[in-house]
């Protein structure tokens, strides 16, 4: 096993919650500014990589991440259908904001799971 730098481990441990909170901020306020679900999810998935750098012996269930990703996809489809049926041609800014924020959160979580699965597969299965 390679020796890891204590400075790297300590600094990444400090940056970990800051990066995750920044990803949440981008996700939630993505309907007002450029950004949103994908960008916030990509930032949050970088915390998964940081977590692996800090502790490579981490136990991660690939099966659980895949199940969560599939459920999120179904939730995204369900919210779109509900929004289309509920709006029925009217424009309501409060409903639109709720819809955009909820879609950003679902998409960010799906991107987080998807990119984490990709990283997990590359590190553990493709490196052999």
TrEMBL record:
Signal peptide bounds: none
Every Na+/H+ antiporter MnhB subunit-related protein domain range: 13-117
Residues that span the membrane, as ranges: 12-30, 36-55, 67-86, 98-124
Membrane topology, record value: Multi-pass membrane protein
InterPro entries: CPA3_antiporter_subunitB, MnhB
Entry keyword set: Cell membrane, Membrane, Transmembrane, Transmembrane helix
Highest taxon in the source lineage: Bacteria
Compartment annotation: Cell membrane
Chief location category: membrane
Pfam family, one: MnhB
GO cellular component, one term: plasma membrane
PANTHER family: NA(+)/H(+) ANTIPORTER SUBUNIT B (PTHR33932), NA(+)_H(+) ANTIPORTER SUBUNIT B (PTHR33932:SF4)
Family: Belongs to the CPA3 antiporters (TC 2.A.63) subunit B family.
Identification of the protein by name: Na+/H+ antiporter MnhB subunit-related protein domain-containing protein
């Amino acid at each position: 096993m390679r020796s890891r730098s204590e400075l790297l481990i300590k600094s990444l441990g400090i940056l970990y919650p800051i990066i995750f909170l920044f990803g949440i901020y981008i996700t939630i306020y993505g309907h007002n500014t450029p950004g949103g679900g994908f960008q916030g999810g990509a930032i949050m998935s970088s915390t998964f990589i940081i977590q692996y750098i800090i502790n490579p012996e981490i136990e991660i269930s690939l099966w659980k991440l895949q199940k969560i990703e599939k459920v999120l996809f179904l939730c995204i489809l369900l919210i779109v259908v509900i929004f289309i049926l509920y709006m029925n041609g009217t424009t309501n800014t409060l409903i639109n904001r709720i819809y955009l924020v909820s879609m950003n959160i679902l998409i960010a979580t799906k991107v987080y799971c998807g990119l984490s699965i990709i990283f997990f597969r590359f590190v553990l299965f493709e490196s052999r």
